[in-house]
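Dear Dr. L.,

I hope this message finds you well. Following up on our conversation about the binding site, I have prepared a predicted three-dimensional model of the protein together with zinc ion. For your records, I am including the exact sequence and ligand specification that went into the calculation, followed by the structure tokens. Please feel free to forward this to your student if that is useful.
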Amino acid sequence: MTMVPAKAYAALQPAAPLEPYRMERRSPGAHDLLMEILYCGICHTDIHQTQGEFPGSIFPMVPGHEVVGRVVATGAEVSTYKVGDVIGVGCFVDSCRECRDCAEGEEQFCDLMVPTYNGLERDGKTPTYGGYSSHMTVDERYALRIPEGLDPAAAAPLLCAGITTYSPLRHWNVGPGSKVGVVGLGGLGHMAVKLAAAMGADVTVFSTSADKREDALRLGARDFVLSRDPDTFQRLAGRFDLIMNTVSASIPYDSYISLLQRDGTLVLLGVSMEPMELSGFPLIARRKKIAGSPIGGIRETQEMLDFCAVHGLGADIEVIPIQQADTAFQRVVKGDVRYRFVIDMASLA
Ligand code: NAP
Ligand code: ZN
Ligand code: ZN
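The resulting structure of the complex is given below.
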């Protein structure tokens, strides 16, 4: 197979700073697109993974799964995209294509789903490299169309933060009048607020940062509360249909469950490696649920992008050159991000 040279930034080992890295992408096969990457968002998961927090990680690691680029070459049998189209790639680039999940367009649940980075291709040996790079080759079936009218830089975070929050909002039928709580106002959280508000929900933000109040209200929340304020939990007891936890650490789960009404759900999107402490009785008493939700499938991701175009939604971003990605990682960990860093890949040149 002929290869296309690509520039990238990689962590060579767990917790190592990112550094310039040369690699190769496959030349487009019959169904592939070769894209020149324009922008890539920095997801907190990129930090968890480059730090080596997840077992079995593969180094060198080129992170990045909020990728937007322009098609520069297409395989002979490509039918859905042409050279010049602006496309996106999210958290996975392949799956088995045959199981029930794949047939239903829920590829994120497929046992053979191939993550965009820190995974292996379906040959079981070729590592995947993410979007902190100049080029990427992707099967057209796993690419998304970035609608005209969406700013490509602000659209990049939709490929993970957007779909990860859109999917549970749809799954739990959020609409006009729904009462939704969003815990943590970061990359995922700020998209959860925008999307839920656009669906007509009454949104409350739970935050540890008092200075995010104005932003939360501007993004579409009706209420903003400090989670460390003890009276928050008394005042809002039994109020919510759905609470979305986007915090990248443990939270007091029982306290949030007390805020759900009958049949309400606390859905976990943020990752903590610690075991959860939970008491059963409050769940039983009001038939409440605690659930998790991973990203979303290709069909639903396209639906989300189209929804964002109709409602004029993108992420609130700070665009940086790739040379500042490490500093951006540190700022994300400190909570100093409003609300997503996006790397301008022109800085790789
Ligand atoms: P982020 O931008 O860092 O936002 C997380 C927010 O949580 C922070 O802005 C902060 O908001 C709050 N927070 C952080 N540390 C906290 C702590 N110790 N206690 C309480 N609140 C804290 O991160 P992100 O990119 O949105 O990602 C959030 C989490 O979701 C990460 O764990 C990521 O790995 C995970 N994730 C999951 C999926 C999925 O498929 N389920 C997809 C993408 C990401 P306040 O200042 O408002 O408190
Ligand atoms: Zn992500
Ligand atoms: Zn499958």
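In brief: The domain at 162-292 is CATH 3.40.50.720 (Rossmann fold).

With kind regards,
A. P.
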